[in-house]
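Sample 1 of the test manifest.
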Amino acid sequence: MPPPPIAVRIATDWLHARARWQPLEVLFWLAAFAAIWLLRDRHLILTEIAWLGLFALSLDLILGYAGIISLGHAAFFGVGAYTAALLAKYNIVGEPVLAMLVAGVAAAVLGFATSFLVLRGSDLTRLMVTLGVALVLRELANRYGWLTGGADGLQGVTIKPLLGVFDLDMFGHTGYVYCLTVLFILFVIARRLVNSPFGLSLMSVKGNPLRASAIGISVDARLVAIYTVAAAYAGIAGALLAQTTAFASLEVFSFDRSADLLLVLIIGGAGYLYGGLIGAIIFKFMQDYLSELTPQYWPFWIGLVLVVIVLVGRERISSWTAPIRRLVGHLSWRMMIRRFTLSPDKGH
Amino acid sequence: MLTIISDGIAYGMLLFVLASGLSVTLGLMNFINLAHGSFAMAGGYITVILVNRLGVPFFAGLPIAFLASAAIGFLFERTLYAHVYRKPHLDQVLFTIGLVFMSVAATDYVMGSSQVFVQIPHYLQGQFEFAGVGIGRYRLLIIVLCGLLTIALQFILAKTRFGSRLRAAVDDTRVARGLGINVNWVFSLTFAFGSGLAGLGGALGAEILGLDPTFPLKYMIYFLIVVTVGGTSSITGPFFASLLLGIGDVAGKYYVPTLGSFVIYTIMIVVLIWRPQGLFARAASR
């Protein structure tokens, strides 16, 4: 077998360097898991952070890596939530972990079906189509009230013990472990995905679809794939919400939810996977604090944050955290530079 | 049947007045303004305050609502929007959603969250029979007023110097700039005028559409439908789109009330997939 061409080697080296776990990343997850024992009285809000983080991660996959602006990501979240709640209520799939996976598949099917709608058109068209899909689902959930409980929400859901062993208690202890584990596993998969050649090709599609297709990347297939994956993630996040609260209501489809989600991701920064998680932490604590001050006028502060972020500029905000990220990237970047300078190809 | 059509036309005309400003700003600056409904809400509430609390006559309240919304629009355009034109669409969306949320919460804080109504004069209430069809007087007024406005708009756009500058700027901003047209100024004026129209629409429509702090969120999708389906290259496109939407929505809610707005959203998705440039748009010029 002949040695691979130099370009392929550089590309794989680059991907390997990106895929390596950084010390801070390890620390992040250690802290998250340590919270199981250290922050026992905060488990309810931590549970919310976990599923919100997963939801934001799902948006990051399509916004940060594929450049699709969605105002209707709550559609998949809602489908996942209702699927999980209905499965539990009618005892079709009693075991929550399995039900969560089924909810993810249901959302993925919807994601696959609607992904063809976002392939065409400008940002505005995509925006409206995604928004429209969420609105249509909300109308459907409202119309089929005998199944979904309509405007009152789906009540009387009892969630069985996880894996038949662990009961979901009202303090959220089990719930947090459950959500965090799911989040971690899905995060690792997403991390693997975006640091693969597939992820690299996605980023080239985001950068310039025309050029990407000119160098032989089938743009549509890539977008369909990532949209489906992101939908599955959002569905699982919705299922986690429904299972930890034993409730699902029309609110899961609401426009506010999609808009809040955009804010979560933007606070943390899109396009490096951790943005959604960090954004979820900041968002939830901010919400906790501000809604205690003025519960009714909480949207005002969301709006203010959005306006300020845009006026200051997202790039500038992310540049404030640049020293930290440089520190994080330091080790692997040094390694990469060494590899590059050692490579025999000097002239490229 | 004819009542539905006349109601639908009134509703559609209102939507057109509300959304026409948006279609121009979108076409001119390629700027996604989700906060357009906030200006309409401002106009509506200003009329409510003037007419209900201060006792200003209804017909005097309308022009004031127009001017006040236009002034607010102008102010916002100069101070805030101007910074966001060159940013990516994502930023525009975030920014205008932020404005919507702020306006919703602020209105809630100042005016309360319950629905409010404008006291319309007695002689505009009730119905009259015309060729066997019952038509609400207020609805007829809306049709007439909005019809006149549409004609005036078409006239301004087609016959005046400002209109031709505006059309030039929409067709090709760069060349228009090169010809010495002050596109930013044209845009500011248009934005203010569009906001004023939205405010007028909000004032007129408070009776029919209902006015509460969530107004900008509730009707955002409708304005966007008018603009995307109608296209941004003319005002006849959005006009017909509004009429279709108005009649379709009224008829849909009358004949299949259980489906709610389902029909409209589905039609919107289908149209956007079938003709991403809008139903009435010319072949893409750019």
